[in-house]
């Protein structure tokens, strides 16, 4: 092959490369002209047959042609790759001006909402929120609350025992006992609320559950009276059930308070006239409370001749049922989305 034909081959390949429209065709051109059976390979194989004078000149031109072809192919390859990426981006682009799809979001559980409302109320009254273990010792769950081993009131709790001395707590009162035991009154009085889950051996029905929530309050200081308790409970009732609510305190019995009371609120549906909610009485039972028993104070290392206080306990489950008209406590635990969506927190 002459030098002119070699240069003519270069032009032919350059034209072929220019007309290529995709990477597949470019590879076909490469194989056709530069492959094992292509003309460039044949030229390089025939170099040995040339004379000593022709070989250097032909070799120089052949290398120039090969380099020109490779450069053209590389340039075309990059151009095709760029065009491919641009086409893909154009095809897969997102129109950001289109309206988005609504994202379904969850909300805080109704019981959590009620607990947070109660916490906010009592924090505003100077209380601290304290939590404790759900797997508790008999010592804190019963004995430090004036319930010794043989006390008949233990039957009221109907407890889940893990061992003879370890159990699932039946109330959040053990948190109060632990707080009193370690408190230093030089830092100020005790004013706490204790929210959390509690457990009792009970048959689940519309108004009972083996697991439920509870929030208890405790105030220990000098010169605390029943009037302080009544004022606190009145503020609670008006905040949670309306400013027009009235309360009444009825004598009751709890081993850890003396005197003990049950608190009722005037019916928010009938205003006291009598209806199906209050069972015709005009009053609805809400919680238990009382002045802390001196034995409870002494067992925690607190001098009952100097310090006194009150305690109260309520069930957020019951409060939620009353406030929002929930007719079955099991709705709180069965995770029915239709029920939960009724109580979405609004922004």
Automatic annotation (TrEMBL):
Query: A Gene Ontology biological process annotation?
Result: phenylalanyl-tRNA aminoacylation
What does the UniProt keyword field contain? Aminoacyl-tRNA synthetase, ATP-binding, Coiled coil, Cytoplasm, Ligase, Magnesium, Metal-binding, Nucleotide-binding, Protein biosynthesis
- Give me the reactions it catalyses: tRNA(Phe) + L-phenylalanine + ATP = L-phenylalanyl-tRNA(Phe) + AMP + diphosphate + H(+)
Paste the cofactor note: Binds 2 magnesium ions per tetramer.
Q: What top-tier enzyme class does this entry carry?
A: ligase
Essential cofactor(s): Mg(2+)
Record domain Aminoacyl-transfer RNA synthetases class-II family profile: where = 110-322
Q: Which GO terms describe its molecular function?
A: ATP binding; catalytic activity, acting on a protein; magnesium ion binding; phenylalanine-tRNA ligase activity; transferase activity; tRNA binding
Q: Would you say which domain of life the source belongs to?
A: Bacteria
Q: Pfam families from the entry?
A: Phe_tRNA-synt_N, tRNA-synt_2d
Q: Which residues form a coiled coil?
A: 62-90
Give a Gene Ontology cellular component term annotated to this protein: cytoplasm
**EC numbers:** 6.1.1.20
Q: Does the keyword Aminoacyl-tRNA synthetase apply?
A: yes
> Where is Mg(2+) annotated to bind?
258
Q: Where in the cell is it found?
A: Cytoplasm
Q: Which family does it belong to?
A: Belongs to the class-II aminoacyl-tRNA synthetase family. Phe-tRNA synthetase alpha subunit type 1 subfamily.
Q: How does it assemble?
A: Tetramer of two alpha and two beta subunits.
The record's NCBIfam families line, in alphabetical order, gives: pheS (TIGR00468)
Q: What is this protein called?
A: Phenylalanine--tRNA ligase alpha subunit
Source organism per entry reads Brochothrix campestris FSL F6-1037
